[in-house]
């Protein structure tokens, strides 16, 4: 789409492609959500979108992406990328920023279809958006949060070298539960030469950055 440069944006890693989803991609992602993304009786998300019947989960995925497209602005954006593995849509890796031209801080979040978990895909897709944040957008900090019993997410975070950055309390199923926050500074990030960003330059103004590249000023 000529008037929506993000539609051309993608990141490639040795095993994955992360791309702005097409309408067909959204249909397939909705199918993944309908199949399930976590065990019954456990909620890993602060917003419990994955509850409900399969058709409700599928519809919520499509609606959420439409909302992020409609509200994308330099001072408050959320980029949700479809993750492709061996030709199949397997999940979503998101990255978001508020007042990013000033704060240079991003926050990540993701989900992965349950039958694709345990293969190292979650680590690789997070590494991809960290590359986009630091190498592509000039971020100075990346943060992420997870419930203290979300062991899979915490394992990815620790593997990538984030540092502890505090805790918060949330209500989950009418019970208090601790979320742990982590931070990675640009100087602690290790660049991955096998990760490539495609068609970013025309997208940069949407993030509040110059089209010719980011400025560290």
UniProtKB/TrEMBL annotation:
Domain N-acetyltransferase, first and last residues per copy: 16-189
Entry coiled-coil feature ranges: none
Annotated GO MF terms: protein N-terminal-serine acetyltransferase activity; protein-N-terminal-alanine acetyltransferase activity
Pfam families: Acetyltransf_3
GO CC terms, sorted: cytoplasm
Keywords linked to the UniProt accession: Transferase
Protein name, entry field: GNAT family N-acetyltransferase
């Amino acid at each position: 789409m000529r008037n929506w440069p993000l539609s051309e944006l993608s990141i490639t890693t040795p095993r994955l492609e992360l791309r702005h989803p097409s309408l067909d991609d959204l249909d397939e992602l909705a199918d993944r959500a309908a199949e399930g993304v976590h065990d019954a009786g456990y909620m890993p998300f602060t917003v419990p979108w994955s509850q409900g019947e399969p058709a409700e989960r599928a519809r919520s995925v499509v609606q959420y992406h439409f909302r992020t497209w409609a509200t994308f602005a330099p001072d408050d954006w959320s980029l949700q990328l479809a993750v492709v593995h061996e030709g199949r849509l397997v999940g979503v890796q998101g990255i978001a920023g508020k007042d990013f031209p000033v704060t240079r801080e991003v926050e990540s979040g993701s989900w992965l279809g349950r039958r694709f978990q345990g293969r190292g895909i979650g680590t690789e897709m997070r590494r991809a958006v960290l590359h986009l944040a630091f190498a592509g957008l000039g971020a100075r900090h990346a943060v992420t949060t997870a419930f203290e019993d979300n062991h899979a997410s915490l394992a990815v975070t620790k593997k990538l070298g984030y540092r502890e950055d505090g805790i918060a309390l949330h209500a989950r199923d009418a019970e208090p539960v601790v979320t742990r926050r982590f931070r990675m500074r640009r100087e602690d990030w290790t660049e991955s030469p096998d990760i490539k960003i495609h068609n970013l330059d025309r997208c940069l103004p949407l993030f509040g950055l110059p089209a010719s590249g980011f400025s560290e000023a």
